[in-house]
Write a structure and sequence with these properties.
The complex is a heterodimer of chains A (110) and B (112). Chain A has 110 residues and is mainly β. Chain A has no helices and eleven strands. In chain A, the strands form two sheets. In chain A, strands 2, 4, 5, 9, 10 and 11 form a six-stranded mixed sheet that branches. A five-stranded antiparallel sheet of chain A has the order 1-3-8-7-6, with no helix packed on it. In chain A, strand 7 and strand 8 form a beta hairpin. The radius of gyration of chain A is 13 Å and the shape is globular. Chain A starts with a strand and ends with a strand. In chain B, strand 7 and strand 8 form a beta hairpin. Chain B is mainly β. The chains are: A mainly beta (110), B mainly beta (112). At the A-B interface, strand 4, strand 5, strand 9 and strand 10 of A face strand 5 and strand 10 of B.
Chain lengths: 110, 112
């Protein structure tokens, strides 16, 4: 069936380093991909999105890369800060439906 | 603009009971989606409502149902609760024609 998964359940990085969180998806028909951040006790928060006709999109300190050939999505966080500690989800979206990955926990080490 | 609100935030129920959760979307958003979040399964899509009509449904049993009112507020109901229904239930709203969803803080349901 359709699925969106994550390669690493937990990622630990030093403060100031760059973080890369990876995601694999299976539905090549999805036309929209999103990254969410979820802090403890809160609902997921939108970070950045990318459409299937793009390869790269940059935001403030974050970059999303989409490789449709291998159905791979990644989130890069530059100069990781303690406030970046959270669980990160990728999601793929088609008409009226979203499929979320299981999440990667990012731990920022001081 | 106020965000998505969900009530109650925490709920404890006993097996066999039923529960109703409420979600108020961001003003102007007509689409409301519900998700179940558990440590083992992650975020699972339950259903989406748009203009009081269920537009899409996930793979959950018929014990899970929902509705949407004319003011776009939505409720979901779970009947005959099972222990496995213990989860964080999240509601998300979005504007028409866009993909970006805004999530509420969730309702933490514990079934004992």
């Amino acid at each position: 069936g359709e699925s969106v998964g994550l390669h690493l359940p937990t990622l630990s990085v030093q403060e100031g380093d760059n973080s890369i969180i990876n995601c694999a998806y299976s539905n090549s028909a999805s036309d929209y991909f999103i990254w969410y951040k979820q802090e403890s006790g809160k609902g997921p928060q939108f970070i950045i999105d990318i459409r299937s006709n793009m390869d790269k999109r940059q935001g403030q300190r974050v970059t999303v890369l989409l490789n449709k050939t291998v159905k791979h999505l990644s989130l890069q966080i530059a100069a990781t800060q303690p406030g970046d500690s959270a669980v990160y989800f990728c999601a793929e979206a088609g008409t009226y439906k979203y499929i979320f990955g299981t999440g990667t926990r990012l731990k920022v080490l001081a | 603009k106020a965000g998505v609100t969900q009530t109650p935030r925490y709920l404890i129920k006993t097996r066999g009971q039923q529960v109703t959760l409420s979600c108020s979307p961001i003003s102007g958003h007509r689409s409301v989606s519900w998700y179940q979040q558990t440590p083992g399964q992650g975020l699972q899509f339950l259903f989406e409502y748009f203009s009081e009509t269920q537009r899409n449904k996930g793979n959950f049993p018929g014990r899970f149902s929902g509705r949407q009112f004319s003011n776009s507020r939505s409720e979901m109901n779970v009947s005959t609760l099972e222990l496995g229904d213990s989860a964080l239930y999240l509601c998300a709203s979005r504007g028409q024609g866009i993909y970006e969803q805004y999530f509420g803080p969730g309702t933490r349901l514990t079934v004992t």
